[in-house]
Amino acid sequence: MVMGDLVDEVDVAVVGGGPGGYSAAFRCAELGLETVVIDADKRLGGACLFEGCIPSKALLHVAAVLSDAARAREFGVDFGEPRISLDPLRKWKQERVVGKLARGLAGVAKAKKVEVIGGRGVFEDSTTLRVERGDVLRKIRFKHAIVATGSRPSGLPGVTIDSERVMDSTAALELPEIPERLLVIGGGYIGLEMGTVYAALGSRVTLVEMTDGLLPGVDRDLVQPLQRRVDKIFAAIHLGTKVAAIREVGSEIEADLEGRGTERFDRVLVAVGRRAQSGGLGLEATRARLTERGGFIQVDDRCRTDDPRIYAVGDVTGEPMLAHRAMRQGKVVAEVLAGRPAAFDNVAIPAVVFTDPEIAWCGLNEAQAESQGVEAKVSKFQWAASGRAATIGRSDGLTKLVADARSGRLIGVGIVGPGAGELIAEATLAVETAALVEDVAATIHAHPTLSETLMEAAENLLG
Ligand code: NAD
């Protein structure tokens, strides 16, 4: 490695160019701080744009179009059997969706004078980062650094074998082919979203989940309609089952499903969670500390680590590992560094599973309210009674509200149904701003819309 002669001095050095990193960098620049972003990829977007949220949602859109076209037969419209051309589909996802957004981010960085440095950032101490890229080494001296290095897919011992037929979410998003038989390991966000994509494109999907239900931890009332749907579109769902081991046998993958014997597949997707990318950053040369479980960087409500010069945001700081949490944290850090009063003290972080139907929630669910000793009142509005749901042939949804019985405040909302991911925005605003159930009930909601289900559920709570 040769030493470059550049030693830059900046106000803020951000390590990692994903949603947390670029949100922090853009806001820092807007607030007058000289800011650079160091990213191994030398481009902004991170896992969210290049191997996560965005490409998966593009493919889920394709899945939705296919399933809407199939559903249209119910009202007498038959488009015939779809023909899928993988090359144009990959190109559309890569160029028109991901590429366009990546160019947009590069443009914003340029306009805000945020330099994006390609390379791996490694801390030498609490004021210096070394940027490693091939044999070039550049040093950055900073007043503050923000670590936003995100997460990566977890592997499974004995299962994550070295075979191109065994994919993580990144590989699955590349759409290498449409396998005839796909084994999905993990019934969480990724397993269900990517399983939906591959099932829509024509794969026979077998999903294996080790706990006794899909989406562990999510309200069962919300999961039920999704379970009914995936029961139809997946070839099989094995709950309470672990994959003990897999082997490559010729051009097939043989999997040992505990208690169910052996089955063969053409490809496997391992989606058993993500883990923090906090290693190899040289953090041991600083005062920042990691949590014992999960190796997350420990931060306080201002996203400060134990090192006064170093902050951290996003997946590397823990759950929930969601891009929008990272973005909010990034903006909070920028405000803090600019000397403004700010804290990451949001009450509600919405979560959306972009399946069909979508599941979305924010705040506390019924079980969480109970375990926190809150006297809760719950209301469930079935979409069977929604005019709008009937007009789109989707009466299978549900809107569920949880309120604090004593204060009358809305403390949690769960929605399952098409568009739940958009509908949750109103609910999040209501929970975040401590709206009363009465406020939601008395707010005029346009008719006929699915948003009325929130108003109706609130009216039910008032009795
Ligand atoms: P996840 O935590 O959502 O689900 C992993 C699932 O795998 C769990 O249900 C778990 O019980 C199961 N599992 C673990 N070990 C297993 C084993 N040996 N055999 C069978 N099942 C096993 O994780 P994910 O789906 O990999 O997603 C990772 C994270 O990425 C999510 O937690 C989320 O934060 C984020 N993500 C979010 C979105 C979104 O916002 N829509 C989409 C994708 C991913």
Shape: globular
N-to-C CA distance: 72 Å
Low-confidence stretches: none
Give a short account of the largest sheet: 7 strands, mixed
Which compounds are bound in this model?
Answer: nicotinamide-adenine-dinucleotide
Please estimate the helix content. 25-40%
- CATH topology call of the largest domain: FAD/NAD(P)-binding domain
Extended strand count: 22
Can you name the CATH architecture of the largest domain?
3-Layer(bba) Sandwich
- Give the count of helical stretches: 13
Domain count, please report it: 3
Instruction: Provide the structure class.
Output: alpha/beta
CATH class of the largest domain: Alpha Beta
**What is the alpha-carbon Rg in Å?**
24 Å
CATH superfamily assignment of the largest domain?
A: FAD/NAD(P)-binding domain
Would you tell me the overall average pLDDT? 96
Q: Which percent band covers the strand fraction?
A: 25-35%
